[in-house]
Structure formats: C-alpha cells, structure tokens
Design a protein that fits this description.
Length: 207
C-alpha cells in the first residue's frame, strides 16, 4: 500500500484503516453518487452535497454559475471533498463500541475550471453515471445551458481512503453479556423505475 501523498491527507485517527492505493480510492469514488464539498466563503465554512464523477485522475462537480461556493472555488479557494459509502451498522455488547462499516475518501486541493471539450466531456460523464448510454438518447445542452453551468475539476493528487470492515471490537469482559452483537448490512440499490407521465398528460390535454 502506498503512503499518504501529503501530511493533511494522512489518516490520523485509527491509521490501520487508511488506504492510499489508487485502486481503492477509485473504486469508492466510482461507486458513490454524492460528495460533500467544503470550503470557506467570506470567512465562514460552507459544505454542500453535490453530484460528481471521476474521469481518470480528476474529480468533476457541476452547478450554477450563480453559486457562491463555485465562484469561490473558481478563484482558487482551497477545497475539501468527502465521499462515504455506508456498508453496515455495527452493534456491540457495550454502548461505547457501537460503530459502522464504511468506505470513505477525502481529497484536498484547488479546483480548476473545465472549458470547451473538457466541459462537454464532463457533462456527458455525469449523465452516464446516472444511466449508461443515456447521453446519446437525450437532448444535448444548448449554448445557453452550457453558459449557465459551471464545471470544476479537482486533481486527485492529495487524497486518502479510510475503510472499516468486520465485527464489533469488544472488551473481553463484555463477551458473556446477554446482548446480541454483530453487523446489520446496508446496501444502496436501484429500485423499480417510475415513469414520468408528463408527456402522456400533455398529449391528452392537446386532444
């Protein structure tokens, strides 16, 4: 396993759970749909959940050109991005040792503005994350829509992962307590699609 790329990317608490290899980082980012993006705006911290996508060694986010956070990031504000996948609830025999199984990534750095072909490619990748093949089936963004959208990219040069797996860590004296202990698995999965009936309703009204 590779070491941390920087001191601030080093996992300080429970370092045995740290993962610095590229394969683990990319696997977590490619499975998640939402990141939490944090920076400082006008002297105050701000954090926003955002859709994102990874392309090669960069992470892309998008939003309105009117977003004060994105405007701050455009001008070079330092950012922190966090992603978490929750895999299970860890129930121990003591209150203190309850926990969760998870996979997480934290990345630091300065965002750059995506323009031209890079911007279009990032928009396509964001749509493809929602459903593979969808970009070629939908209407492409107009010039006005592109102009109203900011897309920023963050190089994944300063990132680390942290992973917890397995059963609760118990005190030996607690093992005989008559309390159930173990893991309740959690999973994120796609449900049955629900169709948008707006088109059918519009047709009916036009008759």
């Amino acid at each position: 396993m590779d070491g941390p790329p920087s001191e601030r990317a080093r996992v300080q608490r429970l370092p045995d759970r740290a993962r610095y290899d590229r394969a683990t980082l990319e696997a977590i980012l490619d499975e998640a749909f939402v990141c939490h993006l944090a920076t400082v705006v006008d002297g105050a911290p701000i954090v926003i959940p955002m859709m994102f996508v990874r392309i090669d060694d960069r992470l892309y986010v998008h939003g309105s050109t009117g977003s004060r956070m994105l405007r701050a990031l455009e001008t070079g504000a330092t950012a922190c991005v966090e992603v978490t996948l929750l895999d299970g609830l860890v129930l121990a025999r003591s209150a203190f040792h309850h926990s969760m199984n998870y996979r997480s990534v934290i990345a630091y750095g300065t965002f750059e503005v995506a323009q031209g072909e890079e911007k279009t490619r990032a928009m396509e990748a964001l749509i493809e994350r929602i459903e593979s093949g969808r970009w070629d089936r939908v209407r492409q963004p107009s010039r006005r829509e592109l102009a109203a959208t900011t897309i920023l990219s963050l190089p994944l040069t300063e990132a680390s992962a942290k992973v917890r797996t397995g059963m609760p860590v118990e005190e030996p004296s607690d093992l005989e307590l008559p309390v159930w202990a173990g893991v309740v698995p959690l999973a994120f999965e796609r449900g049955v699609p629900v169709a948008d009936l707006a088109r059918s309703a519009a047709r009916a009204l036009s008759r």
